[in-house]
Amino acid sequence: MQERILYIRLPCNPIFPIGPVYLADHVHKVFPQARQHILDLATVPSLSVGATLRQTVDQWQPTLLVFSWRDIQIYAPVDGRGGNPLQHSFEAFYGESPLRRLRGALGGLRLTWSYYAEIRRNLGLIRVGLTQARRHHAHARVVVGGGAVSVFYEQLASRLPRGTVVSVGEGERLLETLLQGKSLAAERCYVVGEAPRAGLVHEPPSPLLPRTACNYNYIETVWPAFNWYLEGGDFYVGVQTKRGCPHNCCYCIYTVVEGKQVRLNPVDEVVAEMRQLYDRGVRGFWFTDAQFIPARRYIADAKELLRAILSAGMTNIHWAAYIRADNLDEELAKLMVDSGMSYFEIGITSGSQELIRKMRMGYNLRVVLQNCRLLAQAGFREKISVNYSFNVIDERPETIGQTVAFHRELEAVFGAEQVEPAIFFIGLQPHTHLERYALDNGFLKPGYNPMSMMPWVARKLLWNPEPMGSAFGRICLEAFARNPHDFGRTVINLLEARYGAAPLEEALSAPLAGQRIMANASR
Q: Least packed by Cβ within 10 Å: which of 5, 33, 301, 342?
């Protein structure tokens, strides 16, 4: 029987769905006889997603449904499901008046209802899709994967239809094995009804598959909504240049989901993929790597790619990425500017070298500043987003002053108006070193539910422990009240007013004596 594969991206923010696109492209290259279709429910009005799914299944009659589930955890300082989750939480936990605490509690209730409703809806869509498909093919199968599933695969097991194949991490090799009718025992997945292998998420990904440019001529034929993402003109469209992250940051799940081995895509194939999008009018590219330059040994590879982009004659493009600014040199900085880098994000987390070391982030703030100066000297004049995650471990007034000093120096390098501080509080996730630290130190109890939004759990998962938790909560509330549209800068200003700015040299130094490093927080 000829396979008929339907990829369904479950509703989420309408970010270019590179995961389903790359899966469909890979399957087409390996099984050109398979028929495929992509349904992106992120582009469908929320009230129509169920009807659209049923209609598409009836029209397409798939033998295999592949669901992509992007988001579950909701802690972020941005408006979303029921409003701003950070603001609701902090109002409920730290509001100074009963009225403000009540407002936060009511906002939190709306958020909680929306969160659980989305989970129920997505689980319902998976069940409806499978039931509908089996009306046409009694043995239709379902695979569920994506970022959310890779993190919360253990919690979802009891809620998915029996027999569902749950994919952890990338899915190309898994789909190959499934379509070949081979055993899935060696794949990074499990079948609902059978217990997942212990430590499944920590297993390394499959060996590198031959990676060629995505064939967008083909993708256009199987994805009706493709042009929806191109019509805006100023959209960033995702292109992947590598997979994997070699680092060990205490709160991050990328390093286990994508694997520690960095696997590079051939430069000519990356440029060929960009060229296809460029010829369709795309001028904005987002390199979707966990880190565009994950370590210094990949500087040469980044230079090779950017030289190839410049040689390809794609004029007037702009690109963005997450970067570790400690992995630059003068030539690479110039290539980044010349090739059109128009924005980048750096996950500093803290401007205190002492805390950077404690969080196992593996970079040197002094080098970060030196390399940012290289970018400025190369002519970079665009926006940068600096992600600060306060109060992760051992935060105190002295380290806050250090972060303020570091941020002010970044402003001196690029200009205050170009440096946008993004204030995060970590949403603690399973399978991370921070989770182990929380369990070992009594912040969490074994058997807790990381998908719970009950207040007594959510307050711990939105990581902001005492003794600094209340102080940060009240400062953030004051920033929301003063200037919610420039929240990050307002938080930095308030922190400086309360705690001052340390000497920059203090921020960039990390004496080893007396430090409590997370040495025992590994699995």
A: 33
